[in-house]
């Protein structure tokens, strides 16, 4: 009777996943600790960035939280931890645009818009000044408003603004200059 010897198990070649590099090691990305530290250090500035684009506190908080969630989900794609903040800023700007689109659609569907309510702790003078600035900012073109918010509120350089918005440096300068001129005229007319 013939003896049947067990066949050796076939050798399989392990293929690295997309998250792993060619050597089979985990690719570098933004760590949870780095993202947590970025959250602690920059939450308020990102909230302020969203506030200047949206002017609604609840929506601003939602936008910033959603931005952190999205960056956390995609942290392995952000290979350079130094770019985490830039990625967060870009995500906040994009989510703010989406929120504005939804708001515009909602206003079109409503028969009459809801009045804006000022919070109790804000002073009357500050509220009037803020309302005048918001009204003037709303009168700007979208790109002018985005450039001014990123340049002067977020303290970004012109090159950083260009990279964040995906436009040329010359366009940043032109939008900024025209936006400041339009704001100056609007604020003087309000005074």
From TrEMBL:
This is SigE family RNA polymerase sigma factor. GO terms for biological process: DNA-templated transcription initiation. GO terms for molecular function: DNA binding; sigma factor activity. The keyword Transcription applies. It comes from Streptomyces lunaelactis. Gene3D superfamilies: 1.10.1740.10, Winged helix-like DNA-binding domain superfamily/Winged helix DNA-binding domain. Signal peptide: none annotated. Belongs to the sigma-70 factor family. ECF subfamily. Keywords: DNA-binding, Sigma factor, Transcription, Transcription regulation. Residues 1-26 are annotated as: Disordered. Residues 131-183 form the RNA polymerase sigma factor 70 region 4 type domain. Pfam families: Sigma70_r2 (PF04542), Sigma70_r4_2 (PF08281).
């Amino acid at each position: 009777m013939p003896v049947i010897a067990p066949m050796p198990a076939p050798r399989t070649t392990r293929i690295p996943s997309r998250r792993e590099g060619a050597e089979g090691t985990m690719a570098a990305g933004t760590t949870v600790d780095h993202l947590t530290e970025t959250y602690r250090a920059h939450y308020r500035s990102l909230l302020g960035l969203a506030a200047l684009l949206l002017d609604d506190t609840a929506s601003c908080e939602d936008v910033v939280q959603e931005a952190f969630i999205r960056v956390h989900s995609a942290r392995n794609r952000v290979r350079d931890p130094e770019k985490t903040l830039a990625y967060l800023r870009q995500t906040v700007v994009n989510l703010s645009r989406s929120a504005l689109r939804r708001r515009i659609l909602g206003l079109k569907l409503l028969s009459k818009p809801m009045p804006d309510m000022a919070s109790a702790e804000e002073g009357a003078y500050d509220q009037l000044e803020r309302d005048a600035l918001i009204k003037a900012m709303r009168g700007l073109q979208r790109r002018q408003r985005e450039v001014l918010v990123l340049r002067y509120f977020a303290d970004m350089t012109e090159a950083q603004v260009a990279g964040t918005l995906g436009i040329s440096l010359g366009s940043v300068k032109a939008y900024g200059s025209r936006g400041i001129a339009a704001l100056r005229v609007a604020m003087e007319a309000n005074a």
